[in-house]
Amino acid sequence: MRTKFNIFKIALLIGSAIFLSVSTAHAQKYIELLEGSEEIQLDGTTGNYIVKGNVVFKKEETKLYCDSAYYNLVRNTVRAFGNIHLNKEDTLNMFCDSLFFDTKRDYAKLYGNVRIRDNEYKLTTDSIDYDLKNNVGVYKNKGVITSISSSDRLSSDIGYFYPDSKQFNFRKNVIYTSNDFTVESDTLEFNANSKKAFFYGPTYISNNEIRMYCEKGWYDLNNDEGVLENNAYIDREDLHISSDSLFYSAADSIYIAKKNVEIIDTTNKIGFQGDYAVNDDRKKFAFLTGHALAKRFGDQDTLYIHADTLYSFSDSAGKPQIMQAYSNVKLFRGDMQGLCDSLIYDKVKGEMNMYTEPTLWAQNAQLTSDTITIYETDDRIQKAFLRKNGLVATPVDSTNYFNQVAGTFMTAYFDSTQIRKVDIDGNAKTLYFLEDEEETDTVIVVNRQGMNRIFSSNISLRFVNGDIETATYRENPDGIVYPISDIDKKEERVEQFKWSVDKRPLSWQDMIYSDKEKSDIILLFNKIMAFI
């Protein structure tokens, strides 16, 4: 997951807005009119000097050039008009159509086609108010900051500048663009001291490869880390990540997602969801917990794996290799379900190992043993190896009997998820019920003839539609057929028999929610339906 959220260029752009700090309210209290004006008149009524032609004022290191001005010595105000150019130490230049400056109030306002620039950046807007006493500037009628040397550009309807605290706030229709990416937000705030940027309101960050969204977020340039919050997501062509909160640290190459986490990898046809996820790009490692669910998307069906905690390990290219699941592991696919205490899935080998009382259901058959290993090819189950105390059991319709195949080691072969063959090696046992079908004009009557019990060292069985079709017994088979009424209760079931269909997952939702959560969901659903 390589989605480095770097707004360093935004920070450079906003941080350079410090040039708006026009320090003209310090030692020198008066504005000086320099020699060289073409015409000066005194208006006795207003007390204004009307100055025209090559007008130049000076205050400290700042000079003001204009075509004409009203200069009032009593009020210490200047109203300047035409081709206004404000220059500070030859590094900061301001241009506008008209200007008002009050040194007593320490207040200035620039009107019309306002342009402010230093050696790196330029601000254009309709007008700017500047409170020199509190050192606060604001534009409220759209402004654009652009880089002179690059494509960086930031625009907003409103902009506030606090150079003393180095705080800069942009609001309404904030858009930042560069060659690398685009940011669209309702509010963007940046502090040049802490090097932190904050986003408020719907915010989109995008380029040709990625699109990110949040409704609240922040980024710390010093530590190169940040958070996207509230309906946050990251979209790439092959990857979707969403959660209530997404944290990223570039220094550690770590992502942390919290609440309603969903990850979809279309390239590798896998997905994850849960309450809490961590991804370490450097170690090629990730884990997921809290309603954790892994999904493997097939052409016709999806395999779901749930556990208290899921771990995923990738190769150097970021391609998933091994997944580990621990505690309360459950599997679900439309025609196959399972459970165990822990599971290791090696995607490269196509091998899934289920440990500690594993159980696998394939259609009407239940497979159990000390350990079950499932082998796949092209995401399709080829066989399952049952190691020690292996058992394949299927219920006999409308009875409390079960067909059973047991042995020390067993290999079950599948067509899709339907068992077609079982090889039993060591202490092989079969118990299956003989039946005869009698067809009438209206119904088919099944007659239970009895139970066939056979022991042998090795047995091979072939299945059709989940029932034993043929059996091959090797090395001294020992068999007996019991009439249905004379079945020996001691031989009715093998020693390792278990039947736990009540634990069989009914859906992927059934796997991840507790009984109380399912009850609450049903209660909420019923309340909603009552109002429809």
TrEMBL record:
One of its GO terms (cellular component) is outer membrane-bounded periplasmic space. Keywords: Signal. Residues 1-27 form the signal peptide. GO terms for biological process: lipopolysaccharide transport. Gene3D superfamilies: Lipopolysaccharide (LPS) transport protein A like domain. One of its GO terms (molecular function) is glycolipid transfer activity. Transmembrane segments: none annotated. Residues 48-186, 277-377 form the Organic solvent tolerance-like N-terminal domain. It holds the Pfam family OstA_2. This is Organic solvent tolerance-like N-terminal domain-containing protein.
